Amino acid sequence: MKRALISVSDKTGIIDLARALHEAGVEILSTGGTAALLKQSGIPVMEVASYTGFPEMLDGRLKTLHPRIHGGLLGRPDRADDRVAMRDAGIGAIDLLVVNLYPFERTSRDPSANAAQVIEQIDIGGPAMLRSAAKNHEHVLPVVDSADYGVVVEALKNPAAITPDMRRGLAAKVFAHTARYDGLIARYLAGGAETAESLPEVLNLTFVKRYAMRYGENPHQRAAFYETPGASPASIAQATKIQGKEMSFNNVADADAALECVRAFAEPACVIVKHANPCGAALGETMAAAYDRAYATDPTSAFGGIIAVNRPLDEATASLIVARQFVEVIIAPEVSAQAARVLAGKPGIRVLVVNMSEPMHTGLDYRRVSGGLLVQDRDVPEAEIKLEPVSRRRPTPAETRDLVFAWRIAQFVKSNAIVFARDGRTIGIGAGQMSRVDSARVAVWKAEEAGLDVKGSVLASDAFFPFRDGLDSAAAAGVTAVIQPGGSVRDAEVIASACEHDIAMVFTGRRHFRHA
Questions:
Q1: Which residues of the chain register pLDDT less than 70?
Q2: Beta strand spans in 228-346 (E)
Q3: Cα separations (Å) of 292 from 82, 178, 301, 316, 404?
Q4: Which of 41, 51, 76, 509 has the fewest C-beta atoms under 10 angstroms from its C-beta?
Q5: How far apart are the C-alpha atoms of 467 and 211, rounded to whole Å?
Q6: Model pTM?
Q7: Antiparallel, parallel or unpaired: β 27-30 and 46-47
Q8: pLDDT for res 195
């Protein structure tokens, strides 16, 4: 290694690397701020403008796009014609390229940055150099990640440590990095693609590997968790695990479902999820009361479930949980010191702290299918549910509160979804049945198994009742009020059934199917 070019926006670790290169006798080329920093640190460096004989210009937009730079990165020393061409043009080989790019992502997410400032953070020379070096990785070592500086230092001591596989790995990392960078720019220039009207013709998605998992949904499937760039702090991706085993594939999926559901409530709430479905949910004056009421909906399904609360987890709630049930994951916005001590006695429980103060994310939702990707707006809970009374009897204030509560839960239950609720708690939940009537039967059966009575409760359905038999069944179970989207060609028959049974029914005009 005789010559290196260093040009970095993030200066982390660069002085130590440059010093190691200098001590190994490597000539260092650099640009602007990087060159100034190295000089201040007493490390000899030649500025690129001096090396190319062409000054930086256009406020730094043009500095490395020069044949002496790209010829040095692309030249193949094992080919005679390349060696002759480089010699005749006065181009020297560059053996190492260390580059990271302008902070476009950070600037584009800064609410105080204007469009002109964001555009100036689109790096041109950096990606061009990286692509040249990565293409010629058999002869040039391309480094885009400061975590790989140690690889370079090791190579200075032992050149044999740089294997062809290692070179290909560094090159692959470069192209993955520049692809992600270009995707972020394309998304920004397209306006964010946040609505169906602005969905792009070409969808560029990049995700960063957060951690590997032992396996996926089943032991024979490989799995890893990838984070969306710029993920909201109020997300599983940004959760802080304060204790417990590593998260599994199913843990992450279920924890996400629990978090999204509990965040739908402004009041103190607890949601218990099993196999991506709420199996119990409740409001409460205290977290312990909310958990106790949620657990009572379906104690059997709660075993091995995910518990999410939207208020700090206190000692009383933590003590009740560990004394009562086996739990995989607990999610809370905070965990008190006393609660943490209680949970420490069950070190296998995964405890996640998530910032729940951020608003619900309104971006896009992606679902993989064979040969393609379905893209849609996220189904974010309504900030205010618009209730249209359609029956002769109007719901009482207490029924209205329970209808709103049940409706918010139904949004997070797999279709066909039926939720019975009373006094701010779930009584029975029917999920994932092919028939809406069957979902209602399952919900009633689950309530009976838990020793709960659906008589006097309200019912929420995630979609309209296609026939009046659904309302007739609800009336037979003792339901007093129903909330549903409406929109069936047989709405009149369904409304007639409600009136015949003195059931108060409201339409929301909004369906909440949840197929996966």
A1: 192-198
A2: 240-243, 269-274, 277-283, 305-309, 327-332
A3: 76, 51, 14, 11, 21
A4: 509
A5: 48
A6: 0.79
A7: parallel
A8: 41
**Structure-block tokens of residue 111:** 């609410």
Q: Are 373 and 349 in contact (CB under 8 A)?
A: no
What are residue 353's phi and psi, to 5 degrees?
A: -105, 125
Which run of H or E residues covers position 3?
Answer: strand 3-8
Sketch out the chain's domains with CATH numbers.
3-189 (3.40.50.1380), 233-380 (3.40.140.20), 383-507 (3.40.140.20)
So what's the pLDDT on residue 465? 92
Does residue 161 contact residue 101 with C-beta atoms inside 8 Å?
A: no
Structure tokens at 277: 């479905």
Q: Are 258 and 271 in contact (CB under 8 A)?
A: yes
Is the separation of the CB atoms in 266 and 244 below 8 Å?
Answer: no
CA dist., res. 44 & res. 21, Å (int): 10
Question: Residue 332: phi, psi to the nearest 5?
Answer: -155, 155
Percent helix, strand and coil across the chain, each to the nearest 5 = 40, 20, 40
DSSP for 396-464 reads: PHHHHHHHHHHHHHHTTSPSS-EEEE-SSBEEEEE-S-SSHHHHHHHHHHHHHHTT---TT-EEEESS-
Tokens of 88: 């005749």
What does the pLDDT read at residue 50?
82
Residue 251: is the preceding peptide bond cis (ω within 30°)?
no
Instruction: Report residue 135 as tokens.
Output: 């293409």
Residue 362 is which amino acid? T
Cα distance between residue 23 and residue 153, in whole Å = 11
| 3-class state of residue 487 by DSSP | coil
Which H/E stretch holds residue 213? strand 208-213
* Residue 32 C-alpha from the chain's centroid: 36
Could you give phi then psi for residue 504, rounded to 5 degrees?
-80, 130
Q: What does the pLDDT read at residue 445?
A: 94
**End-to-end distance of the chain based on CA atoms, in angstroms?**
53
CA–CA dist 246, 169 (Å, integer): 27
Active-site residues, by number, are 135, 275
Whether the CB-CB separation of 465 and 471 falls below 8 Å is answered with yes
Sign of the alpha-carbon dihedral angle for 384, 390, 394, 398: negative
Contact 67, 99 (CB under 8 A): no
